[in-house]
Amino acid sequence: MQRLEGKVILVAGGGGIGNELARRYAREGACVVLGDIDLDGVRAVADDIKRAGGRATATRLDGADEGSIAAAVALACKDYGGLDGLHANFAALTTISSDSDVLDMSLDAFDTTMRVNTRGFFLCTRHALPAIFARGGGAIIYTSSGAAHAGEPTRVAYAMSKAAGQALMRHVASKFGPQGVRANSIAPGVIRHERWTAWSPEVVAELEARATSNTHIKSRLGRPDDIASLSALLMSDEGSYITGQVISVDGGATMRS
Question: DSSP string covering 119-138, please?
Fold first, then answer.
């Protein structure tokens, strides 16, 4: 099914979920620019896409570096003639272990989280919008988290940054909807992805236990393709009347109207 034929999509943040996003968008017919701080990793994914007959370009993109974000948008316009969609997917994972509570978390870790997760999404939006306007409109998806609305005793900076991303999404949807831009957030639950292999067995066990206890689908954990399938819908014309929404993909861990 080629729902994205003729569209150009920038996936800002590869690895884990991002790699599957790029593969799915390409299978649906889109030209994909995949950016990540791990250039070798996204090059490998782009090569896989091209071997399968798709169109993809890899570039280094650092959520804390405005120049790399601007360059990724420019690359999409140069290689494929424009930009129809942005999927902002990166996060500052290096600070997760030190993201404790408001009393104990260091300001350095807090500032890093906000610089990447909040400022980075802001900059991606700022640089992508003019290119999307030039195509007559398009779609922006922000990868969020249930942490933004669930309330937790830890991960205060991460939760704050993801809540800020949802506020940004609603701003974009309301301000630029009349110009043909749709914006939505996807809030994944615990998603088992390829980067789990780099984590300690203790961290993996904690994630699995939390997912099993909180979700109402007990047969499995979430997968990257669960996020990618919804993303493809939201990027496509089939999702053309969906905007301003936070959609949870978490096995029912968060149930809300």
Answer: IHHHHHHHHHHHHHHHTT-E
pLDDT tens string 200-248: 777 777 777 776 777 777 767 778 999 999 999 999 999 999 999 999 9
Q: Which amino acid is at 165?
A: G
Tell me the domains of the chain and their CATH numbers: 8-249 (3.40.50.720)
Digit-coded pLDDT (tens) for 128-172? 999 999 999 999 999 999 888 888 887 888 999 999 999 999 999
CA dist 158 and 164 (Å) reads 10
Q: What is the C-alpha separation between 94 and 113, in angstroms, rounded?
A: 9
Map tokens 């370009």 to a residue.
57
- Cα–Cα distance list, 95 to 79, 98, 108, 159, 190 (Å): 34, 5, 9, 12, 18
Which phi and psi (to 5°) does residue 32 adopt? Answer: -120, 130
Q: Is the pLDDT of residue 20 over 70?
A: yes
- According to the model, what pLDDT value does residue 36 have? 98
Sorted by sequence, the CB contacts under 8 Å of residue 50 that are 6+ apart come out as 56
Whole-angstrom Cα distance, residue 39 to residue 69?
14
Give the global pTM. 0.93
CB–CB of 88/124 below 8 Å? yes
Q: Contact, 157 vs 95, CB < 8 A?
A: yes
Query: Hunting for tokens 């979920």 — which residue is that?
Result: 17
- Residue 158 a catalytic site member: yes
35 within 8 A of 56, measured Cβ to Cβ: no
Could you say which of 25, 142, 158, 241 is catalytic?
158
